[in-house]
Structures are given as C-alpha cells and as structure tokens.
Fold this protein.
Amino acid sequence: MTNGETQQAVQMFNVDIATEDGPLRGILAAPLRPMRLMEIVATAAPLASEITDRAMAREKARGRTISCRDGCGACCRQWVPLSIPEVFWIRELVDDLPGARRAAMRRRFEKISAALRRRSGFVNRLLEPEPTAESTFPQAREYFALQLACPFLDRESCSIHEHRPMACRECNVTSPAGRCGHPYKTPVDHVALPFSLTVALGRMASALTGQPPRLVPLALAIEWAREHNELGRRTWPGPQLVQAFIQAF
C-alpha cells in the first residue's frame, strides 16, 4: 500500500492484497475534506461485491452451484450484524426514503425492536459481541429462532439490494436452498471468503474512535444510530479514514 499523488482535492491509495482467489488490486480515492464514518461504506460495498464474486466464481469452477436466488428470503431472518459505519449508513438510507415509505419503514424497525425487547436481556446480549463468528453464534441462533423478517424484506426479496449490508453481500451458499430455513439443524455450506468487510469496517471504526469493536443488529440500527447521533456526525480527514479502512483488512 502506497500513497499516490494528490489531485483534484483527493488522495489516491494503491491497494494490492494477495488472496486465495488472486491478487486484489485497485486504487481508492480519499477526498481531502472531512468524512463521516458512514461515507466509507460506499467504498467498501463494491469491494465486498468484488471479493464475493471472485469467491463464487471459484466455487463454480469447482463444480458447485450457488443456491441463492431472488425470492429466497430464509437468510433474511438472521440478525444481520452491522459495523458502526453501516449502522449510520442504514439510518441515512431510511431517512432518505419518501415520507410515507419512510414512516412505514420506521414502524417495521420499531415492531421488531419491541419483539426483541420482550425477551428479557436479549437486546443487551445482541449488543455485546465483538465482530467474530464465535462470539455472535449464540445470539444469532436465538435471533433466528424468532423468525423476524428483515425490515427491508419485501415478498421474500431485498428491497435495498443495491445498498445491502456487507454481511448480506458476504452470505452465499452452495448447499441446497431448503437447508437455509433450518441452518442450525442441517449443514449449510457457505462460500468461504478471504476476509470479511463487515469485520474490516468494525476494526476501522474501533481504530478511529478508540472504542472496542462492536456489531449492531440491523433491526436495532435506527435506534442505535439515534442514541449515538454525535458519533454519526463526527468527522475525520478523508485520507485518515480511508487509510484506516485499508489497514483494517
């Protein structure tokens, strides 16, 4: 990773990372203006999609079939862990919806939050884990058992597919689709990735804020962002934020 030349109020960062699926090379542009945490999500999303596309191509080359299809919303009952930058990204996404749809979407979030809070101490347990698969497993299993559909699920398809979180981009399977409805009873074969952008964004936010890494369930994103509004407005120099992101993975 090296700094490039500064042109037109941006600083360029070269990225060259070796992965199982070949080198990941590219250039990330960092504006010299102040940036909020959520703004890095627009940079991370296409990178996550590129990593996932390569991994799926690898599986197909090995003769495996990707089971995920439009209209298959079984995984949309998972808790969907968000990094802190993505929490504010989702809040802004909802805030930018047209009036009637925005109000309806907020009611969906509120309904799910109320269901979670009816389980004593469950929300606190959901907000405890650091971004590792091992620490989130018990909470994820308990959440899935509730069968609470994602607020953005519409007719078993994602209504924000283009803007979906990193965890959703990173979740693809090669086992039969029917197993996804019972992931804790039947084996589900996930497409392995060289690294997770969900984790990278969590580490980046931790490095910049000095706070321990944490994940927030998508269903609690709106209220968590509201309770931490000052953090959502805080800014860092663009190059510092982008460099912290690159270093995180």
In short: The chain has ten helices and nine strands. The beta strands are 2-7, 10-17, 24-31, 34-36, 81-82, 153-154, 157-158, 216-217, 235-237.
